[in-house]
Design brief:
mainly alpha, five-stranded parallel sheet, globular, binds ligand DLZ, binds iron/sulfur cluster
Length: 510
């Protein structure tokens, strides 16, 4: 019996479970729809990436002999959502007698899909997404009897399971599981940078660029500057370029930041991986091989593999385990609205300006920009988690809720009742000064805590600890910070509090 096989915009993998299961008379449905393109105000490069990659993928499927029904954006007036697209496909193909898809990546859409069976009165089969090493069920089993979820223990199991960077005795390569401490060097400003590969847009991408420019005029970014990979072949090329040219340095400098160097040694391949253009096992094997060939040091290979089979799988597991309640958490009762400069980069704070400008230009900023600059600022100023998480979901090309929400709500905002992080990643200007050269190019004085021209991160940091002392004062990992705060004379504490309040009441002016 022929089936309708629905493939979503982040499922562009030839080895997708539903494609592996496909039969010759099945019909594949892919659709560019308003509901998916507007549930958050996606960056224009994210829209171009997804639509163009979808069109390229559909072409490949057709060349392989599959029957593909592809609905282009705005060409089907009755089709505004994935549900409408399925309805349209079933009218066109009344012979189809069931619906097949690989489980989707967001709770929101999963709820919509769950209604299809009743709505269309057809059986609906959803396959586990085996592009992840750990299935939702396996993660739930791992989590079942644990009081606390810590990435490190999960990661060790994933290393044993995948056998990546393990020796013959099933012990971690080099004797240690984690070389995180060797991933935190500041970067010398004169170190040669090799940027990620860019790709000239082809005719398909140019069409999509025009479409996005025309229909999404208010969204962040300039669609005409789009230069990302849009096929699996290009994405693999981009990744191999990273392994050959950047990975060796990535290990040391993955937490570093430099003026006007938005990429440093980062691969930016998360945006390709998260829509299915790259395969996680293939990427990890390439990295492991580079280490075995003596081309990259262990801290680089392990650091990269940890992000992929550790952190990435861990946050996905937690997302599915804890949704939908997870999204409503707000541990520190943060309520302040997001300042306008998150959309414009118009702020004098150099670190924020750099992180946001790279977001505007590339729908990308690296993890330390996200965690320790924009995320840290949002944490210290108690910005509303709904607004902050929606911003991250919108502006980053790699952002889908399964990965974005835990990283923002849990890791950056410490709003998830300490499920993901055991302490808030709060930091003063000192951290940013240590990890970057931004402070030398900033009108604020990083050495000043309060008074005219003081770096806002400083008073905000102490103000954050002071304001939340009831909730955070007992946290073992913050004892040193609280001791430092309590050692300050009462008068200085008062001046810091006042300065922090002044900043909090005039965020738009920073
Ligand atoms: C993100 C996105 C966008 C912008 N547009 C589409 C689309 O038009 N059609 C589609 O099938 N998927 C799109 N996506 C990806 C989906 O939103 C994604 O599959 C879900 O959020 C689940 O991860
Ligand atoms: Fe950022 Fe403060 Fe440094 Fe300016 S001085 S770049 S605001 S940390």
């Amino acid at each position: 019996m022929p089936r309708l096989v629905v493939i979503l915009g982040d499922q562009l993998s030839p080895a997708l479970a539903s494609l592996e299961a496909i039969a010759t008379d099945d019909v594949i449905l892919m659709a560019e729809v308003m509901a998916e393109a507007s549930y958050t105000k996606h960056h224009s490069h994210k829209l171009v990436l997804i639509f163009s990659a979808m069109r390229h993928f559909a072409d490949t499927l057709q060349q392989l002999g599959h029957q593909v029904l592809y609905l282009k954006f705005a060409e089907y007036p009755s089709v505004l959502s994935m549900t409408d697209a399925v309805a349209y496909a079933l009218t066109k193909h009344p012979e189809l007698s069931s619906i097949l898809l690989t489980e989707c990546g967001e709770y929101r859409l999963e709820q919509e899909i769950a209604r299809w069976q009743e709505q269309f009165n057809l059986p609906l089969e959803q396959l586990s997404d085996d592009r992840f090493l750990c299935s939702r069920q396996q993660f739930a089993n791992w989590a079942k009897d644990r009081q606390q979820f810590r990435m490190e223990y999960f990661y060790r199991e994933m290393r044993r399971y995948s056998r990546l960077l393990m020796n013959d005795k099933n012990q971690p390569e080099g004797g240690k599981w984690n070389y995180d401490k060797a991933n935190r060097k500041a970067c010398p400003p004169d170190l040669a940078q090799i940027p990620p590969l860019q790709f000239e847009p082809d005719a398909i991408t140019r069409d999509v660029m025009m479409l996005v420019e025309q229909h999404f005029t208010d969204n962040m970014g300039d669609a005409t500057t789009f230069r990302l990979a849009v096929t699996g072949k290009q994405a693999r090329q981009a990744f191999l370029h990273f392994v050959e040219q950047q990975l060796a340095q990535f290990g040391d400098y993955q937490d570093a930041m430099l003026l006007d160097q938005p990429f440093l040694f980062h691969s930016i391949c998360s945006m390709y991986l998260n829509i299915g253009l790259l395969d996680v096992r293939w990427m990890c094997l390439k990295v492991e091989q580079a280490y075995k060939d003596g081309k990259v040091p262990l801290n680089a290979a392990e650091g990269f593999i940890r992000q992929l089979i550790g952190w990435r799988e861990f946050v996905r597991g937690l997302y599915w385990l804890l949704m939908p309640e997870y999204k409503t958490r707000n541990t520190l009762a943060a309520q302040r609205p997001l300042p306008a400069f998150y959309w414009t980069a118009k702020t004098q704070m150099r670190c924020m300006q750099q992180a946001i400008q790279s977001t505007i230009d590339y729908a990308y900023s690296h993890h330390i920009h996200r965690l320790m600059v924009t995320g840290n600022f949002a944490l210290l100023t108690a910005l509303n988690p709904d607004e902050v998480t929606d911003w991250y979901l919108a502006v980053y090309a790699d952002a889908f809720e399964w990965v974005e929400l835990p990283n923002t709500l849990g890791m950056a905002l410490f709003a998830d009742d300490a499920v993901l992080a055991s302490k808030p990643y709060a930091a003063s200007g000192k951290y940013i000064q240590r990890m970057s050269n931004y402070c030398q190019h900033c009108p604020y004085d990083v050495k000043k805590i309060y008074g005219e021209g003081a770096c806002p991160f400083n008073a905000l940091y102490w103000g954050f600890l002071d304001r939340n002392s009831e909730q955070l004062g007992g946290n073992a990992r913050l004892q040193l910070a609280y001791q430092q705060w309590h050692k300050k004379p009462e008068q200085e504490q008062q001046a810091i509090r006042q300065h922090a309040d002044l900043i909090l009441n005039s965020l738009e002016k920073l």
